[in-house]
C-alpha cells in the first residue's frame, strides 16, 4: 500500500474530478462540473465548466475561481484525464510551481474523498440545476495585503494551529492503521518488465458478450513498464485498446499456464 502525501494545512493538496453528462444550460451553456476537494478540511468546490474545455480553459478557471482565494496548491491528485496529460497543462503547473501527481483510476488505495463528494453532489444535481447554472462563485481577487492581528485573535490562531496539528496526527495514525491492516492481508507479487499478467475486467465494459458472463480476468498481457510499486503498464490487446494501459497491482495477477486450460 503506497501512502499518498498527507497535507499539513488547508488547500495544500487537492483532489480533482469531473462530473459530465449533465444537461446544458446557463449563459455559457455549461454541461459539466469540475469538483475540487481539499484533502485537509474535506471542503469541496464545484465549478461549472464544459466537458470539452481545453487545458488552458481549465487552468484559467482554477486560477481565477479557486487559487485567487485559497492560494496555489503544492500537489494535485487526479486520475489520468486527458486534460492533465497535455503538454500545456504540465507547463502551466511547472510555471506555477505545482507538482502534478498521476494516480490510476479505480485504485482503492488512492483516495476516495473526491469520489464520495461527487456521489453526494450527483444526488443533489437535479435540485441545483433547477436554480439555474449560475451559482455564486468566489470573487476573482487575490488579497496580498498584510493585516495586523488583533491581540484577542492571536490566542485563537494559536488554538487553531494546535487543532490543525492534531488533525494531521490523527490522519497519519488513521493511515498507519489502515496500511497495517491492508499489508497483513494483501501480499503484492514481485512484478518485472516482460512478465505475463492477467488484468481484471471489473471496469472493462467494452468486452464482447454478456457483461454478467464475461471472464473475471483478461489476458495474458506483457508488462511494458513499472510505475513505482503500486502500478504497472501492460500491452493491451486491440479489444481493450481504448483502455488506459496502466493498472494498479490490485487489478492484475501473475499469469500461469494453468489459467488457459
From TrEMBL:
GO terms for cellular component: nucleus. Residues 6-121 form the Integrase catalytic domain. This is Integrase catalytic domain-containing protein. Coiled coil: none annotated. The keyword Zinc does not apply. SUPFAM superfamilies: Ribonuclease H-like. It comes from Austropuccinia psidii MF-1. One of its GO terms (molecular function) is RNA binding. Keywords: RNA-binding. The keyword RNA-binding applies. InterPro entries: Integrase_cat-core, Retrovirus_Pol_polyprotein, RNaseH-like_sf, RNaseH_sf, SH3_Tf2-1. Pfam families: SH3_Tf2-1. It comes from the Eukaryota. GO terms for biological process: DNA integration.
Amino acid at each position: 500500500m503506497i501512502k499518498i502525501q498527507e497535507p499539513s494545512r488547508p488547500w495544500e493538496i487537492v483532489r480533482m474530478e469531473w462530473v459530465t453528462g449533465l444537461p446544458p444550460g446557463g449563459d455559457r451553456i455549461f454541461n459539466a462540473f469540475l469538483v475540487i476537494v481539499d484533502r485537509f478540511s474535506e471542503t469541496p468546490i464545484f465549478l461549472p465548466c464544459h466537458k470539452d474545455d481545453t487545458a488552458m480553459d481549465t487552468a484559467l478557471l482554477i486560477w481565477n475561481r479557486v487559487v485567487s482565494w485559497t492560494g496555489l496548491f503544492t500537489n494535485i491528485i487526479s486520475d489520468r484525464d486527458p486534460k492533465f496529460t497535455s503538454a500545456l497543462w504540465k507547463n502551466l503547473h511547472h510555471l506555477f510551481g505545482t507538482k502534478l501527481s498521476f494516480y490510476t483510476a479505480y485504485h482503492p488505495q488512492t483516495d476516495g474523498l473526491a469520489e464520495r463528494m461527487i456521489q453526494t453532489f450527483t444526488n443533489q444535481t437535479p435540485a441545483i440545476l433547477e436554480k439555474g447554472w449560475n451559482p455564486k462563485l468566489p470573487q476573482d481577487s487575490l488579497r496580498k495585503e498584510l493585516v495586523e492581528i488583533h491581540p484577542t485573535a492571536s490566542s485563537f490562531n494559536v488554538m487553531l494551529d494546535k487543532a490543525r496539528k492534531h488533525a494531521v496526527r490523527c490522519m497519519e495514525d488513521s493511515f498507519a492503521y489502515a496500511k497495517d491492516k491492508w499489508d497483513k492481508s494483501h501480499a503484492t507479487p514481485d512484478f518485472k518488465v516482460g512478465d505475463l499478467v492477467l488484468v481484471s475486467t471489473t471496469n472493462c465494459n467494452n468486452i464482447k458478450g454478456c457483461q454478467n458472463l464475461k471472464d473475471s480476468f483478461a489476458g495474458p498481457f506483457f508488462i511494458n513498464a513499472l510505475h513505482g510499486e503500486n502500478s504497472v503498464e501492460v500491452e493491451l490487446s486491440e479489444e481493450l485498446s481504448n483502455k488506459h494501459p496502466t493498472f494498479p497491482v490490485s487489478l492484475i495477477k501473475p499469469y500461469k499456464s494453468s489459467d488457459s486450460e
